[in-house]
Amino acid sequence: MKFYNKMAVVVLATSGLVLSSSPAFAGQINGSGATFAQPLIDVCKVEFTKDTGHTINYTAGGSGKGRTDFTNNLVDFAASDAVYTSGFPANLEYAPVYAAPIAIFYNLPTVKEPINLTAATVAQIFGGQITKWNDPQIISDNQKRTIKTPVYKTKQEVVTVGGKKVTKTVPVLDKNGKPTVLRTTSKTVDIALPSTPITVYYRTDSSGTSEQFGKYLQGTNAGANADLWPKTASGTFANSTPINLATVFNFQGASGSALVAQGVKDKIGGVGYGELSWATDNKLAVANIVNQAGEAVAPSSAGTSAFLGGGTIQANGSLVADYKKVITGAYSIGTASYGLVYPEAAKKNAETQKIVAAWHTYLLEQCPKKFPEKGYVALTGPLYDKAKEQIAKIK
Questions:
Q1: Domains of the chain by range and CATH?
Q2: pLDDT per position as a tens digit, 199-231
Q3: I want to staple 272 with a disulfide (CB 3.0 to 4.6 A). Which of 58, 99, 117, 264 is the partner?
Q4: Which residues pair with residue 316 across a beta bridge?
């Protein structure tokens, strides 16, 4: 491979074809992991190849599969929305490269405006206690209730996508990565809800999205509502629910976010969870989630930035969220997502590691900016600084 690349350079030079933007070598790296990351990786790896000549092969089998493949040295990198809880590899660094909201998406054709859900209501839907869309708890969240909604400051940015300059609308973030909330609006809602049975679609594979969703359900309901979601979060959704899913009729399992979203799309009354892009691509409605400040917030990059800004960055690069903190403008089901990479001590191939480092830098600095419509957050502030520090360890 090295010999072929050297020969290619000689041929180009002697023929007078000088490609100044081409890399000294063009290689490929292999990764696996989160379906949460797939919508962004799928579009951005094409841009990365155009800009660098390198190829990214990525198999989205879930965060658990990515961690397993990384542990077994089967891939050059992995993507995960959750950190290891056991089986920690000897050589591993977490590189936070972007964040995104976990959306609650649903299929209710007769409901023409987004529904609003409190943390307690979400827990009872996904815990099997609420089984119809006109349940008194959902009605309480959506009828004759004054809803406060944050409005964020945005700006226009010009980015290059597909070789063309395009203008994208992005939130304005301060030096700490927090969005500017211009104002909070209020209105009284009175949403008519059907008696349609609820069908819950959940992930059956080992999933960082499921684990982060479980952390939200447990963390926001801690205290007076602890019995609504008492179990510790798990990458396997069935292991963290307060009920035995085998005993209920209205839960449907699916492997990966794509099939969860497809299941909801095909079933009137269906509801599921996943990265916002899966809802957008399937034209599914998404719920506004009531945060600790009492605001009903739609899943967005700005709301996720506000929420994660209240978390604590760990020495290993991971982020611990604070689900009880009152943060204006926060979308409370947001999560950082990580690249799992090998540090210098792993003694990996130097050229491969250069591509891994370049790819994660691209994910951090370019991908969310090029495709803000996918719903991912471009990291800024202290978390961005930590990401750069972690990526620098890839040698």
A1: 26-100+335-391 (3.40.190.10)
A2: 999 999 989 999 999 999 999 999 989 999 998
A3: 264
A4: none
